[in-house]
Design brief:
- The chain is an alpha/beta fold.
- Helix content is 21%, strand content 17%.
- The chain contains six helices and twelve strands.
- The protein has helices spanning 30-40, 86-98, 111-118, 140-146, 190-202, 224-227; strands at 2-3, 11-13, 16-17, 53-54, 70-73, 103-108, 127-132, 152-157, 174-178, 206-211, 230-231, 234-235.
- It has an eight-stranded mixed beta sheet, covered by helices on one side. Strands 3-4 form a two-stranded antiparallel ribbon. A two-stranded antiparallel sheet has the order 11-12.
- β9, α5 (190-202) and β10 form a beta-alpha-beta unit.
- α3 (111-118) packs parallel to α4 (140-146).
- The longest helix has 13 residues, at 86-98.
- The radius of gyration is 18 Å and the shape is globular.
């Protein structure tokens, strides 16, 4: 198991590594930078750097993870990249079906290919499917996602690099929002985040504000931990619960403490980011 600092999941599983740029959110890809660093360190799994690579030896990893957990699938890749054959994705899904105790979160920028894959296959009941919408030009991915009968459908608006404007959130159960990190990060404006929050609240959709990233809400560049995760003085990190088609959708009520905040009372604290 690979533990992770990603706030909205418990662990990552990478039967595929590597990807290629497809839209504006890919410009400063964290996974690409990390893959190059790991290759330089001599980590065998990243011998190909960020070239899409299948790892058959990793397919069975979740079978040995006894405690139920949320698992982000392919945090270092895109499972629906053209370089990943449908036959290999079938093998990933076979592991998913053998481990119903786990919840698998699959996020893609290749929404059309994901919809094509599931057009002839059933989505496992323990799978949440999501698409990245980092700018209004990518809102069409939501339409492809909506075609797939997943128990939970979610959006990752991270890194949010443009005002997304009004979005059709019909059939969406969760919206994650976050700013960009790194030396070349682009700023995220508070009104963009508030706009998405208002749209999610209007439909009773769980909203998860992950972080400001390298630029604070005041437009000042500083460390992401200093910028924190508070939106207008509040930590808003809801995750889907029992209301969303049997599996998720609690909005902002009944919110559990975010990972890493042991005594969370709904108010920001420290420099967690």
């Amino acid at each position: 198991m690979t533990k992770t600092k990603i706030e909205w999941t418990d662990a990552t599983w990478n039967p595929v590594t590597g990807c290629s740029k497809i839209s504006t959110g890919c410009a400063h890809c964290y996974a690409e930078a990390m893959a190059r660093r790991l290759r330089a360190m001599g980590v065998g799994k990243y011998a190909n750097g960020f070239e899409p690579t299948l790892h058959e030896g990793a397919l069975g990893e979740p079978l040995g993870w006894g405690r139920p957990r949320s698992i982000f699938v392919c945090s270092m890749a895109d499972l629906f990249h053209d370089g990943v054959p449908f036959g290999f994705i079938d093998r990933v899904m076979a592991t998913v079906r053998l481990t119903p105790r786990h919840r698998y979160q699959i996020l893609t920028k290749r929404a059309r290919r994901m919809a094509l894959y599931f057009s002839g296959r059933e989505v496992p009941g323990n799978v949440w499917l999501g698409v990245t919408v980092e700018a209004p030009s990518e809102a069409g991915r939501i339409d492809w996602l909506r075609q797939i009968p997943a128990g939970v459908r979610f959006l990752s608006c991270e890194p949010l690099v443009e005002d997304p404007g009004p979005l059709d959130l019909t059939g969406i159960d969760w919206v994650i929002v976050g700013g960009e990190s790194g030396s070349r990060a682009r700023p995220m404006r508070p009104e963009w985040v508030r706009g998405l929050l208002a749209q999610a609240d209007g439909r009773g959709i769980a909203f998860f504000f992950k972080q400001w990233g390298a630029w604070g809400p005041d437009g000042v560049r500083r460390g992401k931990k200093r910028n924190g995760m508070a939106l207008d003085g509040k930590i808003i990190q809801a995750t889907p619960g029992p209301a969303a088609r049997g599996l998720g959708g609690i909005g902002r009520q009944g919110l559990a403490a975010p990972k890493g905040l042991a005594h969370w009372d709904g108010q920001p604290g420290g420099d967690d980011g």
